[in-house]
Amino acid sequence: MDLTLRVWRQRGPLDEGGFETYQAAGVSGDMSFLELLDVVNEQLVTEGREPIAFDHDCREGICGSCGLMIDGRAHGPRASTATCQLHMREFSDGDTIVVEPWRAAAFPIIRDLVVDRTPFDRIIEAGGYISAPTGSAPEANLIPVPKGTSDTAMDAAACIGCAACVAACPNSAAHLFTAAKVVHLNLLPQGQPERWRRVERMVETMEEYFGSCTSHGECEKACPKDISLDNIAVMNRDYLQAKIRNR
Amino acid sequence: MPPLPAGLPRGGNGPGCGNGRMEAMASTTRERTSKLARIGGVYRTDTGKKYAMATSGVVLLAFVLGHMIGNLHVFEGAHDGVYRIDEYGEGLRSLGEPLFPRTLVLWVFLRLPLTAAFLVHIHAAWSLTRSNKAARGAKYQSPRNYLAANYASRTMRWSGVIVVLFLLWHLADLTIGVEAVNPGFRRGEVYQNLVFSLGRWPVWILYTAAQAALGFHIWHGAWSLFQSLGVNNPRFNRFRRIFANVFSTAVVVGFLSVPLGVALDVVR
Ligand code: HEM
Ligand code: FES
Fold this sequence. Notes:
The structure holds two protein chains of two kinds.
Chain A: E1 3-9, E2 18-24, H1 33-46, E3 69-70, E4 73-74, E5 96-100, E6 109-111, E7 114-115, H2 118-127, H3 147-157, H4 164-168, H5 175-187, H6 195-209, H7 218-222, H8 230-245
Parallel strand pairs in A: 1-5
Antiparallel strand pairs in A: 1-2, 3-4, 3-5, 6-7
Helix pairs in contact in A: 2-5, 2-6, 3-5, 5-6, 5-8, 6-8
Chain B: H1 20-28, H2 35-42, H3 46-71, E1 78-79, E2 82-83, H4 84-93, H5 104-136, H6 151-154, H7 156-176, H8 190-198, H9 201-229, H10 237-263
Antiparallel strand pairs in B: 1-2
Helix pairs in contact in B: 3-5, 3-9, 3-10, 7-9, 9-10
Bound molecules: protoporphyrin IX containing FE and FE2/S2 (inorganic) cluster.
């Protein structure tokens, strides 16, 4: 199929930036969206022009590096799919596809489609860990965890930190990401020692960079890993408890 | 994802959280502050403002529900020459009599808390809006394709502002009886006042339209408050949306019944 791409190009953080239009001919439906960009980039390089900068790493939906606003939707038209796993068969011949970087005050654009997501690292540093003695892995059945709890924690742990939630949120809130990380650890026995400090510090670090939650639910729809909005309620409750009880 | 388990482990009594030494370390490094100071401090955070927003929202929801039910007295008409709704209004003003002076209970237990709830709600809304705008920074340069955010959720501040403006009119019109707003106003004659006011078609449209704004606002609010307050349980999560649907529909339909009654000449 033949496609027209309108891609955001920006030389650097201070550049104004703007859309540029490219033609991609003979695109196969089996290509991923990132492969499409590779093809366009090869074209650009042959023409002696600057290739489009975009983030990517694993290309199998687990690292969270990729992330583009495609036709006004984070990670494009297919639900529960990261940009690297979005196939071109989702589009039809003759389509014009608009590609923008994630936008949020906390994510300055470095170049073209690449943004700086350091604030997510700050949130993780604030409490996204447990203080377990290291060494060989303990016997798995030593600490019993109820099935429901472990399932929920594992679902929260599926978050790959791609920041689609922030990108999709009208308030640029990072609640879904932070809640996934808080709930994942706060539910499990191993996460209990720092439970209250964790939620307090992670939420407060989050608030330094991001907006507040209006329960629009856009994040949940944008999430390639189907992290549930329920996690946000659990985080809000834990935060309140941490504050009021002064644990 | 499967629903969250009902019995989440809580600190101190969850499974396997016997690391008492670490917990103690965490708490001894904390300042000992009074509970009140801590609750005040929470309001300084955005998450705290959302608690305040939701809590004041609950108070306001209780008010609109009560107000709507009270309005239904209109349909009881008159009894021994006195309109039922006039009696009801008088009942509110004389609550607590003769133990307390007239309108004291109304002021202290209803009007002041309501005003406080409004002020907190509006302050939190204003300050969260600013913080959200700051966090968004640059807008997307191409059109967004929203999937979940709906008209109601994206217009909360506008529907809120419309409700406030309407409220000001409404107080001037039927509570205080400002001459310029309701020249036919006579203190205590609730029924006649509203029939006169709603008999003017622009006012009739105003009252009807304001219910749309209120309806959208509380439809989103009545579900969102559960999220903000962290009221979350897989056993009743699906009822949160249902509650919001039923609650906002009931309030809007109830409120609309009065102008509708006037239009159909049932209330005259
Ligand atoms: C009778 C009047 C009102 C009722 C019953 C009401 C109720 C609510 C409720 C229950 C919420 C949800 C709180 C949450 O998400 O935790 C809410 C949110 C909100 N209210 Fe109101 N409200 C009223 C008036 C107002 C007014 C006068 C404003 C003023 C400007 C306002 C602005 C907002 C905004 C902006 C939100 C969303 C905040 C956010 O999530 O970012 N509301 N309201
Ligand atoms: S490139 Fe790793 S998730 Fe897409």
